Structure to design on (483 residues):
């Protein structure tokens, strides 16, 4: 990875991390988007799309309602694509997914910590807020956005550090079969999470029939494609 | 219960564009104490500037302080509360009524927004994009996803703020708008169908480079993983399953292969 690519990925991952909750929620944080652009930055669109699809399926496992805690797959996908690009070949899919999952886990923890820090700051500023000072309100709010930006940059940095340091230690160590097995594990968990999350969204009502109809159509097209 | 005052004629919204822009950052200072409260206050503030602002106890300052109180809802629909509260402040509604209005809006705006967006519009477009990529559409599918999604996203934020300002304390009328009711009713089946279509196609796309035995292992593992996620919700998540399966794959690959 060149320095230019690293800086571009760090910037992109930060934007992706901020987009998830803070600003502007235009869904560049969606793994499909985050992964594709990361792939384009690295000149490896195929890896970006594949990793993006894997993490998009994993994202179905998450319903971001209320104050629920969940892994953060946006910056994680950027790190995963960088890993897949560095590892190259069949190893990329499996190893990229592992790096992405670890980064996503840390990202989720960091969001929870940030919310707790924000809570303390807001609690400490209660009297100022109750005075109705618009400048103080704006200052607190912008401070929250900036803290989220720093958090997103750190999480992306972790993902990119893993992408830079892990592949050289793994390349050539695993047998081809082990590499395939790792990729199978990544895809299987993504498909299971995608299906599980979708069924939870669909529920047992009339939407289940629509899901069945879509599933049937998808199976027919997939068989036809073979 | 206090009867609602009649709605005065709708004045032109002051600094509507600025309030709308600020709504895009409504969750910027998300926290467990006031949730979206600060963001809602920041977005509401431009709409309050027409209020008398002289002195520390002015109506403007009191309204700004109220605007930043606890609030939680779907971020895309928070504009309804922002517009309604600001309009109520301009109409001279009592402070208790405005507080009650904000509190009453949290649940419905969260529930409708979650059904319409998180469980409808977003997975619907995501599923269609996954299917399109699996069929070879490549990055263009991602661009189309972003554009189409955000047309709906921006339109909904604009509509919500506008409706809130128009209806004021009677904003509950806006919750019965066909856009929300019919949209939420249609989004569920469409989402279910789209994601159902996408799953087999995506499996085909991701497994395209695997041989016969990896495909057999993939099918078995995915089904077992799905069963585990369904049977042990909360305990087995996609993240835990992914890390667990990767660990098993590495150990098996290291020892036996």
């Amino acid at each position: 990875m060149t320095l230019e690519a690293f800086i571009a990925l760090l910037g992109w991952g930060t934007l992706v991390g901020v987009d998830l909750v803070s600003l502007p929620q235009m869904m560049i944080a969606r793994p499909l988007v985050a992964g594709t652009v990361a792939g384009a930055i690295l000149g490896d669109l195929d890896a970006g799309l594949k990793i993006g699809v894997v993490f998009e399926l994993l994202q179905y496992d998450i319903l971001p309602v209320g104050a629920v805690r969940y892994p953060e797959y946006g910056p994680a996908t950027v790190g995963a694509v960088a890993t897949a690009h560095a590892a190259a070949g069949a190893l990329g899919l499996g190893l990229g997914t592992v790096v992405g999952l670890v980064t996503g886990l840390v990202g989720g923890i960091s969001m929870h910590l940030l919310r707790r820090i924000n809570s303390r700051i807001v609690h400490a500023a209660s009297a100022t807020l109750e005075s109705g000072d618009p400048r103080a309100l704006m200052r607190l709010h912008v401070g929250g956005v900036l803290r989220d930006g720093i958090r997103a940059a750190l999480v992306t940095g972790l993902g990119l550090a893993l992408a830079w340091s892990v592949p050289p230690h793994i390349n050539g160590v695993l047998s081809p079969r082990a590499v395939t097995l790792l990729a199978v594990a990544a895809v299987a968990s993504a498909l299971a999470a995608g299906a599980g999350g979708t069924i939870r969204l669909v529920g047992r009502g009339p939407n289940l029939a629509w899901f069945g109809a879509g599933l049937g159509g998808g199976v027919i097209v997939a068989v036809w494609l073979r | 219960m206090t009867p609602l005052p009649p709605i005065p004629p709708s004045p032109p919204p002051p600094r509507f564009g600025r309030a709308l822009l600020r709504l895009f950052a409504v969750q910027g200072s998300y926290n467990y104490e006031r949730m979206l409260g600060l963001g809602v206050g920041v977005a509401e503030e431009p709409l309050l500037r027409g209020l008398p602002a002289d002195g520390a106890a002015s109506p403007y300052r009191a309204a700004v302080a109220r605007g930043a109180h606890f609030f939680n809802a779907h971020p895309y629909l928070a504009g309804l509360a922002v517009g309604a509260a600001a309009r109520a402040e301009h109409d001279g509604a009592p402070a208790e009524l405005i507080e009650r209005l904000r509190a009453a809006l949290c649940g419905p705006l969260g529930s409708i927004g979650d059904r319409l967006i998180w469980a409808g519009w977003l997975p619907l477009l995501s599923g269609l994009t996954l299917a399109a990529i699996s069929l070879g559409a490549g990055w263009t599918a991602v661009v189309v996803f972003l554009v189409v999604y955000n047309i709906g996203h921006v339109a909904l934020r604009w509509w919500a703020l506008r409706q809130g300002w128009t209806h004021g304390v009677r904003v509950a009328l806006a919750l019965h708008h066909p856009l929300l009711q019919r949209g939420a009713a249609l989004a569920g089946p469409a989402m279910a169908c789209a994601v159902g279509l996408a799953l087999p196609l995506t499996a085909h796309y991701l497994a395209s480079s695997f041989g016969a035995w990896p495909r057999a292992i993939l099918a078995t593992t995915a089904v077992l993983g799905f069963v585990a996620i369904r049977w042990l919700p909360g305990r087995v998540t996609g993240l835990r399953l992914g890390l667990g399966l990767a660990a098993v794959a590495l150990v098996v690959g290291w020892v036996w292969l």
User: Anything to note?
Assistant: DSSP finds ten helices and no strands in chain A. The CA atoms of residues 94 and 185 of chain A lie 7 Å apart. Chain A touches chain B through 107 residues (CB under 8 Å). Chain A has one domain: 3-225.
